[in-house]
Amino acid sequence: MDAIILQILNGLDKGSAYALIALGLTLIFGTLGVVNFAHGALFMIGSFCAVTVQRILSVSFKTVDPSKTDFLGNPSTYDTPYVVHWFGPEFGAGIIDWSVPLAILFAIPIMIAIGFIMERGLIKHFYKRPHADQILVTFGLAIVLQEVIKYYYGANPIQTGAPEVFRGSFDFGVLLGFDPNVIIYPYWRLVYFAFAAVIISAVFAFLQFTTFGMVVRAGMADRETVGLLGINIDKRFTIMFGLAAAVAGLAGVMYAPINAPNYHMGMDFLVLSFVVVVVGGMGSLPGAVLAGFLLGILESFASMTQVIDLIPGINQIIIYVVAIIVLLTRPRGLMGRKGVMEE
């Protein structure tokens, strides 16, 4: 039972990333009808926003300590971060320690701006083009963004630490009545799951309970009729593209301490997230979230030693096997709508 609970936790952690990326993909496809293969790159850029903020906050200057000398008798020097100098040792060190959560404030405007530029500068020219053209151009854009990140940040993963208070592990088993140290789970992974739940809930609440969201949902169902009512639906869809980019970016920011940011991480998640979207149903937001968590949990169980010993390599293909089964039995996915991608 403890192994099962641990794998469920692992699945929820991984499923959170899948669900957030798939949610943004589905928002873009549902509103604009665009298959955006550059969406994984937005997740990657979000991770590097966390790296950038951490580096900015760690910028330092040399301080001379005359009370100490090196082996040559010269006064010793040490690096003092500017934020420590400005805000004091305790508060300044705390700002550096919390650089990843603070990167959210940096990432939101950056990701929205990137989303606007992508949509207005490139994507809008492919609205009426075949999906194959959309895939090719957005995949090419993803490669360009990937190479830009590689050029400026290098090819090696960059370790990005979580706040010190979240670097330990939580004895989850004690809450469920197990012996101590039976189910140990990292604090930050629990934080990431909670963060994903908040973002997903906020997106659904925004679409469900705000006038802007209601117009967007109406436009997703019948764009032409909404346009005839005098509503500038294109402007609202552009805003939704920016919001979808922000969701992907925030997912990347908070995932940085879990998986050290690297230039190809966007591609790693992109393919799996598209499988999640297809399994959940193209254009279905609830389907994308449901499929994200379900496939994350299935992948986690398939990674167990007992399962791999029984079926070698199953952890590498389980998501694709499930996708094949779902599409053979429910071609529209678990919660797909009639007419989407069927023309």
From TrEMBL:
Keyword Oxidoreductase in the entry? The reply is no
Q: Which one of the record's GO molecular function terms can you name?
A: transmembrane transporter activity
Keywords, A to Z, come to: Amino-acid transport, Cell membrane, Membrane, Transmembrane, Transmembrane helix, Transport
Please give one Pfam family short name: BPD_transp_2
Kindly list the places in or outside the cell where this protein is found, as annotated in its UniProt entry.
Cell membrane
| Keyword Cell membrane found | yes
GO BP terms: amino acid transport
One cellular component term from this protein's GO annotations in UniProt: plasma membrane
Protein's membrane topology: Multi-pass membrane protein
Transmembrane ranges, per UniProt, are: 16-35, 42-61, 98-123, 190-216, 237-258, 270-298, 310-328
Query: What is stated as this protein's family in its record?
Result: Belongs to the binding-protein-dependent transport system permease family. LivHM subfamily.
Report the protein name in the record. Answer: Amino acid/amide ABC transporter membrane protein 1, HAAT family
The organism is Puniceibacterium sediminis
